[in-house]
Amino acid sequence: MINLASDNVVGASREILDAIAAANAAPEASYGADRFSREAEARLGQIFERDVKVFLVATGTAANALALSAFTPPWGAVFCHEESHIADDECGAPEMYTAGAKLVGIRGEAGKFSTHDLEHALKRFPRGVTKAVQPSLVSLSQVTECGTLYTLDEIKALAAVAKRYDIAVHMDGARFANALLSLGCSPAEMTWKSGVDVLSFGATKNGALACEAVIFFDPKKAQDFDFRRKRSGHTLSKGRLFGAQLLAYLEKDLWLANARHANAMAKQLSDGFAKMNSIRMPWKTEANEVFAIMPKRVSDAFSQAKIFAAPWYKESISLPHNEHIKEDEHFLRFVTSYATKAEEIETILKTARAA
Ligand SMILES: *Cc1c(COP(=O)(O)O)cnc(C)c1O
């Protein structure tokens, strides 16, 4: 069986499991005051080249929703891609944790939106007009829901619009490491140096068992976050469980090694699909996700060979305008991970070729 439906179908990296077991050996301070969490937080400060405030939580949904809640009143508006994870895949958690702020979806190809699109949306909600929700934040996904990336220039330009309208910038970095390696920049460049105020730094999909970090680049903005995390039920009493995972994730650059491998596997798959006339890829493979449209006979061959991918939305508004997926075609998402083997990619390609 080969399962590339997502990068969370695999378990955790051995190093991370070992670190959890090792952290089990002796008594530790509780509620995040343990030495593992503290060391991991300090390490993130070095990685991001500045004083940061870090809060560990168990899920990306909690990281996103809580991060947003720190920057918006209940009557605020959060601008995001219409098909972003916060809009489509978090069951209203952002609305719940913000006590009712409005998510304003913006359309755009390949899971991205432009400065023009953002500004257009911002203009619908004038500041000071009582009948309108008040702009609070823009949220960018890096990697996007379509496996694509914002370039540094694009992030800077969007953040400049945000500055002009006096709103904050959130980055959903569930696949932060995959994006970082693909852009070939520093963590600081992809975030605060480009205008990002708060980051959901993902670890789970890239080798942790369950750990994500909310990172504030201005510690002043994090003043009430301890309370927000606690009241949401994300302050772990045995906080070492988070700390040990994150420390092992960052140590010896495991996070980069894992993402580098996942990206390489996606490239191998994408390069192979690109050589097949009957397969179309609507979006560029820029990280560890490959989206492919194929005749049913190819996807049937995958099923028969026990190769699993995620059926994707044929109705996605992120598809190029000239892309029309036919009735007898299937649209699949393949997500590679640290655990994907080159031989598995070869098996997928061989199966597709034979079909
Ligand atoms: C997976 C993912 C998350 C986090 O999801 P959880 O299932 O809550 O951990 C957030 N954003 C994006 C873009 C994701 O792909």
Structure description:
With 355 residues, the chain is α/β, with parallel strands linked by helices. 38% of the residues lie in helices and 17% in strands. It has helices spanning 14-22, 35-47, 60-69, 85-88, 93-97, 115-123, 152-164, 176-183, 187-190, 225-231, 240-250, 254-274, 296-304, 342-354; strands at residues 2-3, 53-57, 76-81, 102-106, 134-141, 168-173, 198-202, 212-216, 289-295, 307-308, 310-311, 329-335. Strand 5 (134-141), helix 7 (152-164) and strand 6 form a beta-alpha-beta unit. It is globular and about 60 Å long. It starts with a strand and ends with a helix. Residues 59-61, 64, 85, 141, 172, 174, 204-205 line the site of pyridoxal-5'-phosphate (PLP).
Q: Which secondary structure elements does this structure contain, and how are they paired or packed?
A:
Layout: E1 2-3, H1 14-22, H2 35-47, E2 53-57, H3 60-69, E3 76-81, H4 85-88, H5 93-97, E4 102-106, H6 115-123, E5 134-141, H7 152-164, E6 168-173, H8 176-183, H9 187-190, E7 198-202, E8 212-216, H10 225-231, H11 240-250, H12 254-274, E9 289-295, H13 296-304, E10 307-308, E11 310-311, E12 329-335, H14 342-354
Parallel strand pairs: 1-10, 3-4, 3-5, 5-6, 6-7
Antiparallel strand pairs: 2-8, 7-8, 9-12, 11-12
Helix pairs in contact: 1-11, 2-11, 8-12, 12-14, 13-14
The structure holds pyridoxal-5'-phosphate (PLP).
Pyridoxal-5'-phosphate binds at residues 59-61, 64, 85, 141, 172, 174, 204-205.
